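## Example pair
The file below holds two records. Each record gives the amino-acid sequence first, followed by its structure token line.
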Amino acid sequence: MTEFQVLAIPICFVLGMGIIKILDGAGAAIRRREQAELHWLPFIWAFIILVFQLQFFTILWNLHLDDKTWTWTSYGLILIHPFMYFLATSLLWPSPSDNRTDNLRDDFDKHGRWAWRSSLVLCSWQLFSTSRRMGRRGRRSSTRTYWTSS
């Protein structure tokens, strides 16, 4: 195994846990539809966070093309993303033990705002780091590095 493959295992594990949490939360909300009124907003945000997680997985998949020496700092900065996505999915749905929730919209107003705030921070950070990287390497070489296979 290469160094990157070893480092990618915990990242993929946390991303997988986040995806499971999204699907499990959606299933639990649908099962509790008689006790709690469904609302479209948590489902839309769950879909958006799911797309973000899948996008991050594809970016991670293409990172092996970079001949980079991994340090704890660079690895930690990449590892923050799946943890923040997992935090966002944890805040998106009501907890299974919370029987007081009678409306998904009320629970989203109470806890879900932190989910979209953490997603917004991650998106801003990705845009900033991508624009910084593109400025350093030039637009053309950065695109070619991530989207071609060698």
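Second record, same layout:
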Amino acid sequence: MKTKNKLILFSIFLIFLLFLIIITFSINYNSNNSRENFNNTNTSNTSNKSNTFNIILLGDSILANENYVINPSKNSVYSQLKEALNLKSKKSSNQSYTIYCYAEDNAFINDVYNQLNKLNSQDLNQSQTNIIILSIGGNDLINQTKTKLKQEYKLLIKSIQEKFPNSKLIICDIYYPKSSYYNQFNDIIKNWNNFLSNLINQQNNENYSSNIIYLPLSILLTENSDFINSIEPSISGSTKIINELIKLIN
């Protein structure tokens, strides 16, 4: 009788132990599946995440030459940049670009503040990448309107960085216009470009988070065919500018 009872108790114990094993296996299996599904979902979301870039043009007619090229809706700096970015977006399905052009013909350094005021930073999604392209100072130099241009330019850069602290800033230098009249400004332009280069190097060295890039138009645009009216970017000049900008926009 005692032996029979022991067998019964032992059988009950085995059944209970088997039940525990089954429950434990089931819990672990469901947990692993949940974790795998979560990881797969995260991976999927990451791979499908879209990168949106806001391209902001500020400055003068170097970036706003619509009044000088034929068929500006196709050949201006803005139009060529828009087309190039559309092609770039098609090659990379998870990237898109929106262009804001506030550059204006005949603009001076102080005019850029008005251009900035037209662009409300709150309208730009903070998760998006802002790339600001600035070309200004040529009209100030040629007209020699003020003596403290370098100080004004530094203040402008500071204002842009404060308004868009996490943005990439591409600064264009001044090219040398192709005419005997404008040759008189070559030394002034050279001095200005040295100032810009030194300013950018200084900022990048002092602040490792600074994201300023120097675009030397003075090296890119050197042929007579690059200009209209001896001073404005032609169709081919615009193309040279765009080809270089596309390399820097990423």
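Notes on the second record: The radius of gyration is 31 Å. The CA atoms of residues 17 and 206 lie 68 Å apart.
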